[in-house]
Amino acid sequence: MLNGGSFGVKVIELIDELEKLVERSPRIPFTERILIEGGVLLDYLDRLRTMLPDELRQAQWIQQEKERLLAEAQQQAKELLAEAEQKARQLVQETELVRQARIEAGEITNRAQRLAMEIRTRAVAYADEVLGELENYIMQVLSSIRQGRQELEAYRPSSSPVVSLEDQRPGANAQ
User: Which residue of 6, 48, 98, 168 has the fewest C-beta atoms within 10 A of its own C-beta?
Assistant: First the structure.
């Protein structure tokens, strides 16, 4: 189960550290830009990435699993259809057997189609349920982050320039 409270606290603590880093970083004279070492910033990004809940990492796996299940269902249906066709060819020799083969092939085909549809329906429903839960969790996390940022705004001096992380990239807005 997700522990949104602990996650939110850790993210806010890391945001606080980033804010202190920005405040302590040397300023470029006559600009609102600051200097931050790329390695330090990458370290913070790595730490943020490791804080992401497993559910976010599992979202891609869920999508791949859904596709695998759909492909597996289609393969099973093809195999069942091929089996039915093979049986039908073998029974063509005699008219009664031909009639029986057609009936059986139709039943196998119908079963294969129902099975494929059932597997597909279950896979889509499962993926939708998991993605819905993930969406709700992400919305909660996003709400916590927004709340944290709003709380941080109360501590920001009104005369302090706002520095974008993009402004800190080497070569950004170089003229």
Answer: 6
Q: Please report whether residue 174 resides in a domain.
A: no
Residue 127's closest CA among 77, 76, 66, 67?
66
Alpha-carbon distance 138 to 144, whole Å? 10
- What is the span of the domain harbouring residue 127? 4-166
Residue 22: inside a domain, yes or no? yes
Contact between 38 and 29 (Cβ < 8 Å): no
pTM score, two decimals? 0.34
Grade residue 75 by pLDDT with cuts at 50, 70 and 90: very high
- Answer for the pair 98, 62: CB distance below 8 angstroms, yes or no: no
Q: How far apart are the C-alpha atoms of 49 and 79, rounded to whole Å?
A: 43
According to DSSP, residue 170 is labeled: T
**Which of 46, 39, 50, 44 has its CA nearest to residue 20?**
44
Give residue 18's identity as a one-letter amino acid code: L
Sign (positive/negative) of CA torsion 89, 90, 91, 94? positive
